[in-house]
Amino acid sequence: MAGSGPAPPGYPSHREADIALRDGSTVRVRPLRPDDEGALRAFLEGLSPESQLLRFFSGGVSLARQARIAAQVDYRDTYGVIATTGPEGRVVAHAQYARSDGDRAEVAFAIADAFQGKGIATTMLAHLSEAAGEAGIARFEAQVLPENHRMLEVFRQSGFPTRTRRDDGVVVVEFPTSLSPTALERFELRDRTAAVAALRRFLSPRSVAVIGASRRRGTVGGEIFHNLLEAGFNGPVYPVNAAADTVQSVVAYPTVLHVPGEVDLAVVVVPAARVCEAARQCAAKGVAGLVVISSGFAEAGKRGAELQDELLAICRGSGMRLIGPNTMGVLNTDPEVSLNAQFGPVFPPRGRVGFLSQSGALGLAVIDHAARLGLGLSSFVSVGNKADISGNDLIQYWEEDPDTDVMLLYLESFGNPRRFARIARRAAKSKPIVAVKGGRSTAGARAAASHTGALIAASDVTVDALFRQTGVIRTDTLGELFDVAALLAHAPAPRGRRVAIVTNAGGPGILCADACEAEGLEVVALPEDVRASLRRAVPAAASVANPVDLLATASPDDYSRSVSIVAESGAVHALIAIFIQPLQTPAEEVGRALEQSVAAIGERLPVLAVLMSEAGGAQPRGMGAGAFPVYRFPEDAARALARVVGYGEWLERPEGERPDLSDARPDQGAEVIAAGVSDGGRWLHPDELATLLSCYGLSLPRSRVVGSPQEAGRFAAELGVPVAVKAVAPTLVHKTEAGGVRLGLVGEQAAREAADAVAEGVRAAGHELAGFLVQEMVGEGVEMLVGVVHDPLFGPVVACGAGGTAAELLHDVAVRITPLTDVDAREMPRSLRTFPLLDGYRGAPKMNVAALEQLLLRVGAMVENHPEIAEMDLNPVIVSPERAAVVDARVRVAEPAPRAPWPSLARP
């Protein structure tokens, strides 16, 4: 058994991680400990003679000695990593490096025969590379026998830029330890392959057992078993019930171990206290996937969380994957599978939409609603407590699934937003992702000690930023989620924002136009030649402006001709047809006319219909080329169209590049930050601030911290220019509110008197004064704010907005999650309501926005390099025609949480 005693000094516990393999199973990867020596020796002795030869170049080495040497690690010059499996922590792989000369180290691997080819060596290579980089090792060297083709292929396919040479009968492979973009892509591909393999265990099983299957309909166990049978699952379904010989006319078994055939998927519906025993039996049976419907786990308190940890440990120990607990189940409408392993009453129609729900109860409503709307699903997964399988895994599965075109997500929380960002950004390039995220309210928002913190904590702007940067279409409600899904599933993508409206009633047309413009769409005037064509095709009394009002007497042919003329003109990118049923014209006839027009229009543009009748709703109409989405009200259609247009613009958005700051001095910056962290975390002093900013090419105006009003006056006289006097008080956030700032002071006396007034005001406000900052005044310009909050989940969050004393009042802010690219830096100021002030508003000179963009990029690089920066306020930043000058700055540093090892099964 692998070591389980107290961790040795310096043991990097944050590098422990559960890793998914290519076949969907898992292993535990962690740094080697000295007390692992016995388990490591057993592993080496269990290798086949061929594997021992390939690892040690000889079949006669002392494996006991090799294990003893390998176990002597100091986590800097010598480092080892092992992969374990099973409840006893059996070692199945070992890798190590040993520093050989300065910044170089020799690396070696050994993988158990049964685990070779599953991607363990690639994962261990990433682990060693990350650890070596932190230890100052820049290059790895591996000596490999020429016949060890599999290991040579690992190095070739790793993405690291390798160089090979022959030396005394062995192949020497050299490569840098830094993870190159190509290496990261390879690891992401491996991660995606593992996720797809894991989900296939659940969505394409060959056999299913229901543990807790009931003879009684109306119970959860009874309904799940019934649904599996009724859907016609293409494989055996085994009921497991110790108290019954048969369940719903099918022979039952007392435990899963008594089932005569293999079991790929087990659905567990027993009380929480019995789930772990059922999981152990599934592990012994060799079950690949476990869906735990039972509740009473982490969602139920401390004891439930302990049960969930025990359940996950059982699954990890056997390589079994887990959905749930506290889930409503899974389904797959593929007729080759026909899996309905959930307890809801409806099996949705076949479609090309994948749906994930973090809420089980909501999942039931979602399936029912989708079926009523005619929105077909490809597969559905309720992830429950997300103990193992997560939204990240589902996105990667659907990304590769040829039967899924659109992904829908209902999310309540994130576990690893940065991993979500990597996955979603890539997946959204090929398939749209639509999400509704619960928890928009500010209840429970953390208290913030800076302008930036207050701005970001005021709402879930961080989630907005995450979705915006990754191309995820965010909706506010489930109804809007389905509205967007209907458009994506049943119409071509719009290629721009210009919209035409065709209606038979003026009021709904006006409401639709208002809704379109409110959402940023453009209801443009139609060209004269289009209007002329419309006049010849519709009744004389009709209006051929935009909206096109065909009047209440409009016939189905009037709709067909008008829609075709506008669509074929090329003047617009989308068309919304509104119909209110009058006495003469049935809605069904108009619907058929639109089907014919849409089929003829093809992929030129999307047509959305608003049928304001009892039969209306967000649902598709027609089949194949003639299909189009139907909405109940004009505003619903406008919102759905705007969301999809925004997604199309994101697809066209350039990737952007991260800045190459060759002039930065991150090592010196780290020294400054370390001093603050060693004090237990604090706000940096003004001189420390100036040094830190200078390490990233940012400067403050000439200034000095002084201890008395007299010194303030003398330094002001020394500068010989107008100055500002500011309080230095660590607990003071808003200096102006306490009278802690005096501006535009000329001469020694003015500065001295201002310092006296500042001291009086700050002390009256209850703050301890540590001194005064005397600073030269910066010329006029637009006051901006640039700031950072280090979110415990999202990492550094950068804000740019209107600055000065009114920053929180205006609440005009753009937010991005690092790392920032040049595209992010360009978009942030331009998305502000107050951007015209930077762009020559009412004849004023244009400000140097490019300098502001550079400042944003440098701040983004700084906080990405130094996770110890908990909060940063640069407020104000004066942007003038010449430059962007940081006038006031505050930075708080603290000990950061350890970064999760990558790649790993970090939860979504």
Number of helical segments?
Answer: 27
Which secondary-structure class do the elements indicate? alpha/beta
Sheet of most strands = 8 strands, mixed
Biggest sheet, strands in spatial order?
1-2-3-4-5-6-8-7
Parts with pLDDT < 50 across at least 5 consecutive residues? 443-451, 904-908
End-to-end Cα distance: 31 Å
Calculate the mean pLDDT score and round it: 90
Shape: flat
- Tell me what portion of residues adopts beta-strand conformation: 15-25%
Share of residues in helices: 25-40%
Number of strands: 40
How big is the Rg? 32 Å
What does this structure look like?
This protein has 908 residues and is α/β, with parallel strands linked by helices. 37% of the residues lie in helices and 23% in strands. The chain is built from 27 helices and 40 strands. The protein has an 8-stranded mixed β-sheet with strand order 1-2-3-4-5-6-8-7, with helices on both faces. The chain has a 7-stranded mixed β-sheet with strand order 17-16-19-18-20-21-22, sandwiched between helices. Strands 23, 24, 25, 26, 27, 28 and 29 form a 7-stranded mixed β-sheet that branches. Helix 6 packs across helix 11, helix 11 runs parallel beside helix 12 and helix 12 runs parallel beside helix 14. It is flat, with a radius of gyration of 32 Å. The C terminus is likely disordered.
Q: Summarize this, please?
A:
The protein contains 27 helices and 40 strands. The C terminus is likely disordered.
